[in-house]
Amino acid sequence: MLGINGSGQEKKSMLAVSLEVLHKAADRLGLDQSMRNILSKPQRILSVAVPVRMDDGSIQVFDGYRVQHSLARGPAKGGIRYHPEVTMDEVIALAMSMTWKCAVVNIPYGGAKGGVVVDPTKLSIGELERLTRRFTSEISIILGPEKDIPAPDMNTNAQVMAWLMDTYSMHKGYSIPSVVTGKPIEIGGSLGRLDATSRGLVYTILELVKKTGMKLEGARVAVQGYGNVGSHAAVFLQELGCRIVAVSDVYGGLCNDNGLDCKAIKQVAAETGTIMEYKGAAEEIPREEVLEVPVDILVPAALGNQIHGGNAHRIEAKVIAEGANGPTTTEADRILQDKGTIIIPDILANAGGVTVSYFEWVQGIQSLSWSESQVAAELERRMVSSFNDVYERAQREDVDMRTAAYLIAVERVAQAIKLRGIYP
Ligand code: NAD
């Protein structure tokens, strides 16, 4: 299970890494081989061929997947991504990660993920809608508010979720908003969903600050990736008194030792598609260098595998709060642990998104809506208590927070499987 990453280095596949992390937790928990066998395999994989009539009248057939890794703690939950490099292995690994993420924040879901092998930038809006509707139709046999609830992921958004919800509802003959989260507010989406991941991430940083005595006022921060997660996190942290000294997007990096104007950069990125069009006080730097700027807090919020064996030695951050999924390779993790870097792991740090998705589902099945402040307060309560569970477990077992988060998550899922027993 070896592949080559962008920098030409050999790396393990995402699934190989996910299994390694699972077995590490299983060793420490003393799980027997039978339980490991159950946890290592997805419960269901649905592979579908999705024929779509293109605008020129031809038919193209796209490969799609929906994987439910575990249903032990409740219905399956996880996003759907559209990307030309989607593979079934990657979808399995991402579904497994959703199982642990939902368990670590203790929401009553198992993990799922879906994907279609497609470059959506090459589709017209009509083609995108027909693809979404036919893919939904193909996987609808395993979807449902009590079965499996998709959400947006890479290259899918609220509009795609609206088409998915409509297609599923047309099959059943009545409106079923709770089959999906991340919908537009007008058809049952939740207030506070857009910035939920960043808000959740900031709550975990605030808790860490309380534990360590570190000061947020004047703390130097770098943020990699300035999309949904990165831009909101930068603005929230600046509002709390942090000095955001470096940010990046796919086109490059900006730095200013006196602090960047995060709101203005967010506005420019929204209007032009990149932070690099920002004309205020900032120096341009290569995007990779943003990770290595001397800071107190680093927020990787772009892609996976950005912090690797090749650059981990040069990362000076005291704290890394993982907004992205899987930004740190196992090798980098070891290097950073040796240096004493505190890492708030992805399955905890970025779980605010799925937590508010859960609130959206809860509001949907009860046919009521919460205010934005209610959503934020409930999110804070859950993130704070999950952070404290992980922090205390890490202290008690003398392990890093990533290991502690996996111990809690894997233990909760294993316990659910044990209590339910094996059917028949
Ligand atoms: P997004 O598409 O809104 O933003 C991604 C940002 O990363 C963009 O600014 C893009 O230009 C930048 N980027 C891409 N490649 C880069 C590179 N090599 N160097 C620097 N910047 C680069 O995505 P998002 O929703 O903000 O998600 C970001 C990460 O957070 C992803 O890993 C995603 O899986 C994870 N995540 C997102 C959510 C959520 O609610 N949006 C929840 C959990 C996890």
Structure, explained:
There is one protein chain. With about 425 residues, this protein is of the alpha/beta class. Among the domains are: about 40-185, Leucine Dehydrogenase, chain A, domain 1 (Rossmann fold, 3-Layer(aba) Sandwich), CATH 3.40.50.10860; about 195-350, Rossmann fold, CATH 3.40.50.720. About 45% of the residues lie in helices and about 20% in strands. The protein is built from 13 helices and 14 strands. The strands form 3 sheets. A 7-stranded mixed sheet has the order 11-10-9-8-12-13-14. Strands 3-4-6-5-7 form a 5-stranded mixed sheet. Helix 9 links the parallel strand 13 (about 320) and strand 14 (about 340-345). Helix 4 crosses helix 5 and helix 11 (about 350-365) crosses helix 12 (about 370-395). The two termini are about 35 Å apart. The structure holds nicotinamide-adenine-dinucleotide. Nicotinamide-adenine-dinucleotide binds next to helix 7 and strand 9.
Write the layout of secondary structure elements.
Blueprint lengths: L1 E3 L5 E3 L1 H16 L3 H8 L3 E10 L5 E10 L7 E8 L4 H17 L5 E8 L7 H15 L8 E5 L5 H15 L23 H17 L7 E5 L3 H12 L3 E7 L2 E4 L6 H11 L10 E3 L11 E4 L18 E3 L8 H10 L2 E3 L1 H4 L2 H15 L5 H26 L3 H20 L4
Helix pairs in contact: 1-3, 1-13, 3-13, 4-5, 6-7, 6-11, 6-12, 7-8, 11-12, 12-13
The structure holds nicotinamide-adenine-dinucleotide.
